[in-house]
Write a structure and sequence with these properties.
The protein is of the alpha+beta class. The chain contains 6 helices and 16 strands.
């Protein structure tokens, strides 16, 4: 005959088992409901579909050579792969190749980048768009860069047309990125704004909207009339490899130069050694608030890394016309940071 104590134990075990079954079913239901959520078809319209060429600053460009697609009820992914061509001289294939994955999961479009020299986002993975797509829409996500630094990113849709959307991404307190995404194209324009020693630097790329392949562009270039000797001279120059710190300083110095010459701010002086030859020369610059001169690109043609002396050909543009400066920079490390100690204009046609 079963005692009352034995009956209580049996019932407690029964309730425990039933509880486990119900809890397991609840977890399975939650998991399956998330994975079974269909992908947003409106977001899928923004995925790239064709091979394209993208141009950036300092003679950078990357070219998509392969497009692969995979689709299920739950996600739609387009994988791009291709080649990177810029002034960096690499040592293996990884230095010149990249992959990108555009993946729609539910109401989110995620972009994942691989490639050490792809001039795209600071972030390895980013939620670049979220439905519903409407101006003022905001969202946040967590990500990290190639070095493992973690960020909380705040995104906002800032412009929208029938087939194109522009989104800004605030990364930390000072850095931000802007990306334009178009139906059937993915990213058509990308800007990365960063702070370097108190000065703002800008880099990025844009799609070649003329859709002319590189072989055709080279043929057109070869058959063109040589009306601009300096342009042809610049295109034929071989660049040398320099460190990222040198490249960032040159970009920031030239971008701040245009602002300083207009008397807009004095951030340029933060990039110069105090009481140096460069500092004295900058104090003698005449300001012109009406100037529309903008920095375009540069090539390092000679580098003496030990002496920190670099010869650089710079390109500026004003009213559609390009100007070329051949400048010798002398740099100096100040408390671990590179600054401009002197500069000499060798050629200013």
């Amino acid at each position: 005959m079963m005692t009352l104590k034995y009956i209580k134990i049996k019932w407690s075990k029964l309730f425990y088992c039933v509880g486990l079954v119900v809890f397991s079913f609840f977890l399975a239901a939650c998991s399956s409901s998330k994975s079974s959520e269909p992908y947003n078809e409106d977001l899928a319209k923004y995925l790239p579909q064709t091979q394209e060429v993208y141009y950036g600053d300092n003679q950078y460009y990357h070219e998509v050579t392969n497009v692969e697609q995979s689709e299920s009820n739950h996600e739609y992914e387009v994988r791009l792969s291709g080649e990177i061509k810029n002034n960096y001289k690499g040592t293996n294939a990884d230095d010149f190749t990249f992959t990108q994955s555009y993946k729609v999961e539910g109401n989110e479009l995620w972009l994942t980048n691989t490639g050490q020299h792809l001039n795209d986002s600071l972030l390895v993975k980013a939620c670049i768009l979220k439905a519903p797509v409407e101006v003022g829409k905001t969202w946040s996500f967590k990500s990290q860069d190639l070095e493992g630094n973690k960020y909380t990113v705040d995104a906002e849709i800032i412009t929208l047309s029938d087939d194109e959307v522009t989104v800004s991404y605030q990364i930390g307190k000072e850095d931000y990125e802007v990306r334009t995404i178009k139906y059937g194209c993915g990213t058509t324009e990308f800007e990365k704004h960063y702070q370097y020693k108190g000065a703002e630097g800008i880099t990025g790329y844009h799609m070649d909207l003329n859709q002319t392949d590189m072989s055709e562009k080279e043929e057109i270039s070869q058959n063109a009339d040589p009306i601009d000797d300096m342009a042809r001279f610049y295109d034929d120059l071989d660049s040398v490899t320099v460190s990222d710190s040198v490249r960032k300083l040159v970009v920031a110095f030239n971008q701040e130069w245009t602002r300083y010459s207009k008397d807009e701010d004095n951030h340029l002086l933060d990039l110069i050694v105090d009481d140096s030859s460069a500092y004295e020369k900058m104090k003698q610059i005449e300001h012109n608030k009406d100037s529309d001169m903008e920095f375009v690109s540069f090539k390092v043609i000679n580098a003496q890394a030990v002496e920190k002396v670099y010869e650089i050909v710079e390109v500026y543009e004003s009213q559609g016309q390009k100007f070329y400066n051949h400048v010798k920079y002398t740099l100096k490390a100040v408390e671990g940071d590179l600054r401009v100690d002197d500069f000499e204009i060798i050629l200013n046609p």
